[in-house]
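ZP: hey, is the S-adenosyl-L-homocysteine complex queued? I don't see it on the tracker
AM: it wasn't, my bad. submitting now with these inputs:
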Amino acid sequence: MRRYHVTTFGCQMNAHDSERIKGMLEELGLGEAPALEDADVMVINTCTIREKAESRLSAHLGLAKALKDADPGRLLAVGGCFAEVQRDRLFEQFPQIDFAFGPGSIAALGEWLTAERNDGASGSFGTGDERRFAAELPSRRERPFQGWVQISMGCNSVCSYCIVPTVRGKQMSRPAPEIVAEIERLAVDGVREITLLGQNVNSYGRDLPAAERLDFASLLRACDRTPGIERIRFTSPHPKDFRSDVIAAMAECGSVCEHAHLPAQSGSNRILKTMRRTYDRGRFLALVADMRRAIPDLAITTDLIVGFPGETDEDFEQTLSLVEEAGFDGAYTFVYSPRYDTEAASLPDQVPEEIKRERIERLIELVQRTARDRNERRIGGVEQVLVEGQSRTDSTLLRGRTRRNTTVNFAGTAGAGELVGVRVEATSSTTLRGTQVVL
Ligand code: SAH
Ligand code: SF4
Ligand code: F3S
């Protein structure tokens, strides 16, 4: 049997796409190889969000080239966002690639493999007639009890630093009945936790024809009604679209988890404006307050960028104070990275690397302190935990996640996929530590 290996870079959207790539390859009769070295078909699902993603990718493409040089029978296919953005230059830059495909045309990989090089067409880029939802393909899920559900693709925002709209195109929502049917199938299959995925989940539905239109709040309520699904998560919402109906749905739906990943990007009004985020600091904080009022136990995590063009010390201080005022439970922190053909890449006053370094270090320190403070408040309480398996750091412990999406390492006897109670006894900035209790 021929074997494949898929390497994934980038966001959850790519992780979900990779599950579909695997499902499709298995349907074509290929088996999974444990490592790239063992694969006849090597697939790399790429990301282009920041420069760092690309340098990691180059190293990987180098390894794939060495493997191909040693055994020219192997095939190398490259998909995802970097492939899409570089499509005109890709084969010139990396002649080792046999086939490439963008995020909207995963099915083209299957078609190419089936027709495989009968026409000797190595070095081709697969495109469908139109973008298609990866969700239409079979899936090989990483964990039997968790599932990602794609609700939309693309993004209609114009954040001036971001390459995603160029790569993934305009927002296209999946019809609600298809989403609900998929969730029902997952539930029958043993899935207990789902994560709704989209570049901007809470602008879901606005592009659907009037007769089919459903907004995000109603979609959440429809998902909540599916028997067997005990936890619903979603990522990422945009603060500008987080309306009161979504907050109410979160508060009222028992299976919607008490967690929102709400990217702020900056705490400075001036920077938010040049970023074209369309909200200001005051509106962001008011939203956080509204959410916390409606959902008392809510965890809020965020994304923050330092070193955006023109960011002064004063602007940066505003980001630091936003972290404290909002009381984030966690944050992904990024150094601004100029991306091809984005508006911000050609702005004057790009911030020097060493200042970016200093700022990110200060920010990370503050984020960790804030997160640890928030986690400490959980000590002594009992959290509902979905068991994911053995702890990564200590094999005598189990690992799982709370509804607030915090990782917990704990002493207990439960199996993966079970929902248990865990009494929290200690904490770091990112993980809790505890003991299983009877709920
Ligand atoms: N669609 C999601 C996430 C987009 S990418 C959203 O809008 O929330 C994930 C994060 O990467 C963004 O939230 C942003 O913080 C960061 N990011 C995007 N472009 C970047 C760039 N050019 N430089 C640094 N960070 C960037
Ligand atoms: Fe990028 Fe902004 Fe769209 Fe998020 S909302 S994907 S940051 S353009
Ligand atoms: Fe990267 Fe594409 Fe996601 S650029 S972050 S894989 S949408």
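AM: back. DSSP finds 13 helices and 19 strands in the chain.
ZP: great, adding it to the tracker
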